[in-house]
Amino acid sequence: MEEFFKLKERDSSVAQEARAGLTTFLAMAYIIVVNPGLMVIAGVPVNAAVTATCIGAGIMTILMGLFANRPVACASGMGINAVVAFTLTAMTDGDWHASMAVVFVEGVAILLLVLCGLREAIMDAIPIPLRHAISVGLGLFIAMIGLKDGGIIVANDSTMVALGQVMSPTFVVGVISIVATLILYVAEVPGSLLLGILIAVIAGIPLGVTQAPTGVVSPLDFSSFGAPFQTDANGIAGIVKVLTTPVLLVFAFSLMMSDFFDTMGTAMAVAKQGDFLNKDGSVENIKEILIVDSAAAAVGGFIGASSITTFVESSSGAADGGRSGLTSVFTGILFIIAAFFAPLISVVSSAATCGALVMVGYLMMNDVVDINWTDITEAFPAFMIIAGIPMTYSISNGIGFGFITYVIVSLIAGKAKDIKPLMWISAIAFLIYFLIV
After folding, report:
1. I need a surface site. Which of 28, 189, 385, 419 has the fewest CB within 10 A?
2. How many CB atoms lie within 10 A of CB 117?
3. DSSP assignment of 69-91, as one string?
4. 242-263 confidence digits (pLDDT tens)
5. Domain ranges, ordered by start, for the chain
6. What digits encode the pLDDT tens for the residues 216-235?
7. Cβ atoms within 10 A of the Cβ of 392, count?
């Protein structure tokens, strides 16, 4: 095991990887409850949605660990699952099989792009300052997710975002999570992020934030598997509807753009914490990561779990010592176990993970010093990425802002020759994407 996962080479151990795997799992555990809730709105039977969410995340995370050998975990992506529930299913006249077929087609298309080397080539074409900006923007985004989950920041009609209710139980648990994680991290206690989550879970019991489980065991239901090839009341398979409906194919393109660049940013975030990000901002083993991620999108559509993708919360496990794919294997096993015990796992509230995510956000901010803020051709596109990712609550949107402004600023500054062909293609693709979404 140590030889396969290169534990000694990466200064890790089985115990350290197991702890990091648990940290990642707890940071992602909310998906076990949230994704089925959205899939039910789309029309997927509730037990089938829970089974698909847990089994899909478990299998693809284990494959990521074995194939890419990096601490990257996968699950049904937030954002796309909401699109499936509230937009895509309406476009397919309530046929969730066709909705999953759109996700399946998008996953197959993006997998072909990876196998052709295009996705990796685009990552290589990104200027180094923009790579640093993606890391910083993701740090702010992760911290924002944590603060939102902890009730410390809330939506506000007048100011867009505001301070939450200080005396609310969720706010208190969120603060306890941050303070406990910070104290443990400063004291250099091993597993500080994991311990911070567990302390917050315990603190949430008397405050009513940590809810008692509604049960212990949940039955498995595989009826959503093969969704794109299942038929509606008229005997028409979902995949046939997609391939014969132009508007659904266009929608598949927009999902592909989101998946394409979300994973790019997430991989950089996890690599930063897991010590496999090179000085030029390139990610080691990126091709293997992208292959599994792309296959996961197709698998998610196939089993009825929405698009499965790499989770930015993986960076919490990497920050807690995860250095190899063994972290992912442990996380994946826990997801599969959770398929049987979903009600029990759901007691970990999102507020309890607030401290871990805020700490990861802090750790990712040091890349900001590697951007030359005196050169506007570098600095302004970098700023648009850093601001765009958290302010639009979308990794791909922020990256798109940066790519487009990089081309514009470079043209104005007379540096058109510095723009690589794939950056031109990416900027144009983003422009089209923004016009059709």
Report:
1. 189
2. 12
3. -SS--EEEPTTHHHHIIIIIHHH
4. 999 988 988 888 788 778 788 8
5. 2-436
6. 888 899 999 999 999 988 89
7. 14
